[in-house]
Amino acid sequence: MIPALRLAPTDHVVDFGCGSGSLLDVIHSRIEHYTGVDFSPDFISYAEKRVAEAGITNARFECSQIVDFCARHPAEFDIAVSVDMAGYLNDAEFERVHAAIRGSLNPRGRLFLYMANGAFWLERLKKRGLAPVSAAPYSSVRTAPEYLELLRQSGFGDVRVSFTPHYNALRRLHFLSGLPVVGGTFRAKVLVEARR
Ligand SMILES: C[S@@+](CC[C@H](N)C(=O)[O-])C[C@H]1O[C@@H](n2cnc3c(N)ncnc32)[C@H](O)[C@@H]1O
After folding, report:
1. Which residues are CB-contacts of 95 (< 8 A; sequence separation ≥ 6)?
2. For strand 189-195 and strand 159-164, is the pairing parallel, antiparallel, or unpaired?
């Protein structure tokens, strides 16, 4: 997904639901500044320790609910990223959180949302109870049209979607995503780009 972000050396990037901040490892040398936001104190202290040990200086972390953080940082960021975070949110929370994220972007800002694709064959099996599911609260895996609709309802205008391979061994099946009719069930991950 990194090439799709089209990062610039002047970019201020915010990573919502950053966890241990692993995105920072692959983007810190390409941007001006990174902010990681997560409501888990354990993840934030682990991320801060990890980044200090790595000697990365253009980053900071904040332990906060996303909505509260955005209220404190209006129109500030060039790029907002969320990786595997939106699955924590039911539809009402999704709209509230993403309207807040939109408010944290500057007028040229862009959001990149990366999530499992609800149309992927494995996610379909999970929905039918035929494959093991992750523990709650990680529960809302959606299809691309569902992400698009929710982002539009959250206020985002220009929204577009692409599909990426899985990051585990299932990526080897990605070539099947080009097949007619059944190709959609082999698209493991959705990457949505939305302009403020
Ligand atoms: C599956 S983890 C992904 C972590 C990281 N993005 C990664 O790819 O390694 C999702 C993270 O989102 C955080 N999170 C979920 N909802 C949140 C919210 N409303 N405010 C802040 N953090 C949230 C969780 O604490 C968790 O660390």
Report:
1. 150, 153, 154
2. antiparallel
All structural domains of the chain with their residue ranges: 65-195
List pocket residues of ligand 1, CB cut-off 6 Å: 17-19, 22, 37-40, 43, 65-66, 83-85, 88, 97
- The pLDDT tens digits of the residues spanning 77-133 come to 999 999 999 999 999 999 999 999 999 999 999 999 999 898 888 888 888 888 887
The Å distance, Cα 17 to ligand 1 centre, comes to: 3
Crossing angle of helices 91-104 and 144-153, in 10° steps, is 60
Confidence band for 143, pLDDT divided at 50, 70 and 90: very high
Rg (CA), the chain: 17
Token reading at 129: 């109870």
C-alpha 147 to ligand 1 mean position (Å): 17
Give the residue from 81, 98, 102 showing the smallest Cα distance to 147. 98
Would you say residue 188 has pLDDT above 70? yes
- pLDDT over 90 at 159, yes or no: yes
The CATH code belonging to domain 65-195 is: 3.40.50.150
135 pLDDT band, cuts 50/70/90, is: low
